[in-house]
Amino acid sequence: xxxxxxxxxxxxxxxxxxxxxxxxxxxxxxxxxxxxxxxxxxxxxxxxxxxxxxxxxxxxxxxxxxxxxxxxxxxxxxxxxxxxxxxxxxxxxxxxxxxxxxxxxxxxxxxxxxxx
Amino acid sequence: xxxxxxxxxxxxxxxxxxxxxxxxxxxxxxxxxxxxxxxxxxxxxxxxxxxxxxxxxxxxxxxxxxxxxxxxxxxxxxxxxxxxxxxxxxxxxxxxxxxxxxxxxxxxxxx
Lengths: 116, 111
Prior knowledge:
A: mainly beta; 7-stranded mixed sheet; 55% strand; globular; B: 6-stranded mixed sheet
Protein backbone atom coordinates (compact mmCIF):
# COMPACT_ATOMS: atom_id res chain seq x y z
CA UNK A 1 0.00 0.00 0.00
CA UNK A 2 1.20 3.48 -0.77
CA UNK A 3 0.03 6.98 0.13
CA UNK A 4 -3.00 7.40 2.36
CA UNK A 5 -5.58 4.64 2.66
CA UNK A 6 -9.01 4.71 4.27
CA UNK A 7 -11.38 1.94 5.29
CA UNK A 8 -14.18 1.28 4.81
CA UNK A 9 -14.82 3.10 1.55
CA UNK A 10 -18.58 3.04 2.13
CA UNK A 11 -20.52 2.80 5.39
CA UNK A 12 -24.23 2.81 6.13
CA UNK A 13 -25.24 3.05 9.77
CA UNK A 14 -28.27 3.70 11.91
CA UNK A 15 -28.43 6.54 14.39
CA UNK A 16 -27.89 4.21 17.35
CA UNK A 17 -24.90 2.35 15.90
CA UNK A 18 -21.26 2.74 16.86
CA UNK A 19 -18.70 2.48 14.09
CA UNK A 20 -15.14 3.58 13.38
CA UNK A 21 -13.39 4.96 10.32
CA UNK A 22 -9.75 4.08 9.83
CA UNK A 23 -6.98 5.97 8.08
CA UNK A 24 -3.41 4.82 7.51
CA UNK A 25 -0.58 6.75 5.90
CA UNK A 26 2.51 5.09 4.44
CA UNK A 27 4.43 8.31 3.84
CA UNK A 28 6.34 8.68 7.09
CA UNK A 29 4.43 11.85 7.95
CA UNK A 30 3.96 13.30 11.42
CA UNK A 31 0.62 15.08 11.01
CA UNK A 32 -2.81 13.67 10.18
CA UNK A 33 -6.18 15.28 9.58
CA UNK A 34 -9.89 14.51 9.37
CA UNK A 35 -12.09 16.52 6.99
CA UNK A 36 -15.82 16.40 6.29
CA UNK A 37 -17.19 17.06 2.80
CA UNK A 38 -20.96 17.56 2.64
CA UNK A 39 -22.89 18.14 -0.56
CA UNK A 40 -22.60 21.71 -1.85
CA UNK A 41 -20.44 22.84 1.10
CA UNK A 42 -16.68 23.43 1.27
CA UNK A 43 -14.49 20.82 2.88
CA UNK A 44 -14.43 21.40 6.63
CA UNK A 45 -11.44 20.62 8.79
CA UNK A 46 -12.49 18.54 11.82
CA UNK A 47 -9.34 17.50 13.65
CA UNK A 48 -5.56 17.87 13.35
CA UNK A 49 -3.03 15.59 15.02
CA UNK A 50 0.68 16.36 15.15
CA UNK A 51 2.99 13.69 16.54
CA UNK A 52 -0.07 11.86 17.90
CA UNK A 53 -1.22 14.92 19.83
CA UNK A 54 -4.46 16.68 18.93
CA UNK A 55 -3.67 20.27 18.01
CA UNK A 56 -6.98 21.32 16.48
CA UNK A 57 -10.59 20.51 17.24
CA UNK A 58 -12.74 22.61 15.00
CA UNK A 59 -15.90 22.76 17.15
CA UNK A 60 -16.87 19.24 16.20
CA UNK A 61 -19.75 17.59 18.12
CA UNK A 62 -18.73 15.00 20.70
CA UNK A 63 -20.46 12.22 18.76
CA UNK A 64 -17.27 12.28 16.65
CA UNK A 65 -14.28 11.03 18.63
CA UNK A 66 -10.82 10.90 17.02
CA UNK A 67 -7.97 8.66 18.06
CA UNK A 68 -4.36 8.70 16.91
CA UNK A 69 -2.48 5.75 18.46
CA UNK A 70 0.66 6.42 16.40
CA UNK A 71 1.79 8.71 13.61
CA UNK A 72 0.70 6.26 10.90
CA UNK A 73 -2.86 5.58 12.05
CA UNK A 74 -5.88 7.77 12.67
CA UNK A 75 -9.37 6.70 13.65
CA UNK A 76 -12.69 8.48 13.81
CA UNK A 77 -15.10 6.81 16.22
CA UNK A 78 -18.75 7.50 15.51
CA UNK A 79 -21.73 7.10 17.84
CA UNK A 80 -25.34 8.28 17.86
CA UNK A 81 -24.92 10.15 14.60
CA UNK A 82 -27.61 12.21 12.88
CA UNK A 83 -28.73 11.99 9.24
CA UNK A 84 -27.07 15.37 8.58
CA UNK A 85 -23.73 13.74 9.40
CA UNK A 86 -23.96 11.84 6.12
CA UNK A 87 -20.97 13.00 4.07
CA UNK A 88 -17.64 12.03 2.58
CA UNK A 89 -15.02 11.85 5.34
CA UNK A 90 -11.51 12.47 4.12
CA UNK A 91 -8.26 11.79 5.88
CA UNK A 92 -5.01 13.58 5.02
CA UNK A 93 -1.42 13.60 6.18
CA UNK A 94 1.54 15.95 5.89
CA UNK A 95 5.18 15.85 7.01
CA UNK A 96 4.50 18.42 9.73
CA UNK A 97 2.23 21.33 10.53
CA UNK A 98 4.28 24.41 9.71
CA UNK A 99 3.23 26.46 6.72
CA UNK A 100 5.91 25.66 4.18
CA UNK A 101 6.08 23.75 0.91
CA UNK A 102 7.37 20.61 2.61
CA UNK A 103 4.08 20.29 4.45
CA UNK A 104 1.81 19.69 1.51
CA UNK A 105 -1.24 17.64 2.49
CA UNK A 106 -1.90 14.29 0.84
CA UNK A 107 -5.44 12.94 0.91
CA UNK A 108 -6.95 9.49 1.09
CA UNK A 109 -9.90 8.38 -1.09
CA UNK A 110 -12.46 9.01 1.63
CA UNK A 111 -15.23 7.06 3.36
CA UNK A 112 -18.75 7.72 2.08
CA UNK A 113 -20.93 7.66 5.20
CA UNK A 114 -24.71 7.41 5.14
CA UNK A 115 -26.66 7.74 8.38
CA UNK A 116 -30.20 6.41 8.25
CA UNK B 1 -12.94 34.63 9.42
CA UNK B 2 -11.23 33.47 6.24
CA UNK B 3 -13.57 32.75 3.34
CA UNK B 4 -12.60 31.29 -0.01
CA UNK B 5 -14.68 31.74 -3.15
CA UNK B 6 -14.25 30.01 -6.49
CA UNK B 7 -15.65 31.28 -9.75
CA UNK B 8 -17.12 29.91 -11.90
CA UNK B 9 -18.93 27.12 -10.05
CA UNK B 10 -19.07 25.09 -13.25
CA UNK B 11 -17.38 25.31 -16.61
CA UNK B 12 -17.85 23.37 -19.84
CA UNK B 13 -15.34 23.73 -22.69
CA UNK B 14 -14.37 21.84 -25.85
CA UNK B 15 -11.11 19.94 -25.90
CA UNK B 16 -8.04 22.02 -26.70
CA UNK B 17 -9.16 25.27 -25.09
CA UNK B 18 -7.02 27.16 -22.62
CA UNK B 19 -8.95 28.04 -19.48
CA UNK B 20 -8.65 29.94 -16.23
CA UNK B 21 -10.15 29.05 -12.87
CA UNK B 22 -10.39 31.75 -10.21
CA UNK B 23 -10.02 31.65 -6.46
CA UNK B 24 -10.37 34.58 -4.07
CA UNK B 25 -9.85 34.78 -0.32
CA UNK B 26 -10.83 37.45 2.19
CA UNK B 27 -7.79 37.50 4.51
CA UNK B 28 -4.35 37.95 2.92
CA UNK B 29 -2.56 36.55 6.00
CA UNK B 30 -1.92 33.12 4.53
CA UNK B 31 1.08 30.80 4.57
CA UNK B 32 0.42 29.19 1.21
CA UNK B 33 -2.30 28.29 -1.26
CA UNK B 34 -2.90 24.85 -2.70
CA UNK B 35 -4.85 23.74 -5.77
CA UNK B 36 -6.41 20.26 -5.74
CA UNK B 37 -8.27 18.08 -8.18
CA UNK B 38 -11.14 15.83 -7.07
CA UNK B 39 -12.69 13.18 -9.27
CA UNK B 40 -16.30 12.15 -8.49
CA UNK B 41 -16.56 10.24 -5.21
CA UNK B 42 -12.80 10.26 -4.76
CA UNK B 43 -10.24 11.97 -2.56
CA UNK B 44 -8.18 15.03 -3.44
CA UNK B 45 -5.04 15.09 -5.54
CA UNK B 46 -2.67 17.98 -4.93
CA UNK B 47 -1.79 19.82 -8.12
CA UNK B 48 0.24 22.84 -7.09
CA UNK B 49 1.27 24.58 -3.88
CA UNK B 50 2.32 28.25 -3.89
CA UNK B 51 4.07 29.75 -0.89
CA UNK B 52 2.91 33.20 0.22
CA UNK B 53 6.23 34.66 -0.96
CA UNK B 54 5.87 33.20 -4.46
CA UNK B 55 3.98 34.58 -7.44
CA UNK B 56 3.44 31.40 -9.45
CA UNK B 57 4.08 27.70 -9.80
CA UNK B 58 4.04 25.53 -12.91
CA UNK B 59 3.55 21.82 -13.45
CA UNK B 60 3.16 20.56 -17.01
CA UNK B 61 0.09 22.19 -18.55
CA UNK B 62 -0.88 23.80 -15.24
CA UNK B 63 0.17 27.22 -14.03
CA UNK B 64 -1.03 28.75 -10.78
CA UNK B 65 -0.51 32.37 -9.82
CA UNK B 66 -0.92 34.10 -6.49
CA UNK B 67 -1.56 37.77 -5.72
CA UNK B 68 -1.67 37.73 -1.95
CA UNK B 69 -2.30 41.44 -1.48
CA UNK B 70 -5.46 41.34 -3.57
CA UNK B 71 -6.51 37.93 -2.24
CA UNK B 72 -6.56 36.15 -5.59
CA UNK B 73 -5.20 33.07 -7.27
CA UNK B 74 -5.76 31.67 -10.73
CA UNK B 75 -5.21 28.20 -12.14
CA UNK B 76 -4.44 28.22 -15.84
CA UNK B 77 -4.91 24.96 -17.76
CA UNK B 78 -3.40 24.91 -21.24
CA UNK B 79 -4.71 22.78 -24.10
CA UNK B 80 -7.46 21.14 -22.03
CA UNK B 81 -8.19 17.43 -22.43
CA UNK B 82 -11.22 15.27 -21.51
CA UNK B 83 -9.09 13.72 -18.77
CA UNK B 84 -8.95 17.14 -17.09
CA UNK B 85 -12.66 16.85 -16.29
CA UNK B 86 -12.97 17.01 -12.50
CA UNK B 87 -13.72 19.42 -9.68
CA UNK B 88 -10.88 21.82 -8.90
CA UNK B 89 -10.54 23.10 -5.35
CA UNK B 90 -8.34 25.81 -3.94
CA UNK B 91 -7.41 26.01 -0.29
CA UNK B 92 -5.51 28.58 1.75
CA UNK B 93 -3.31 27.64 4.68
CA UNK B 94 -4.08 29.95 7.60
CA UNK B 95 -1.49 28.45 9.94
CA UNK B 96 -0.56 25.07 11.42
CA UNK B 97 -1.70 23.46 8.19
CA UNK B 98 -5.26 24.58 8.76
CA UNK B 99 -6.67 24.63 5.23
CA UNK B 100 -9.77 26.65 4.35
CA UNK B 101 -11.34 25.38 1.12
CA UNK B 102 -13.48 26.93 -1.57
CA UNK B 103 -16.54 25.14 -2.92
CA UNK B 104 -14.77 24.26 -6.14
CA UNK B 105 -15.16 24.64 -9.89
CA UNK B 106 -16.64 21.66 -11.71
CA UNK B 107 -14.91 21.37 -15.09
CA UNK B 108 -16.16 19.35 -18.06
CA UNK B 109 -13.96 19.08 -21.14
CA UNK B 110 -15.78 17.55 -24.07
CA UNK B 111 -14.02 15.71 -26.92
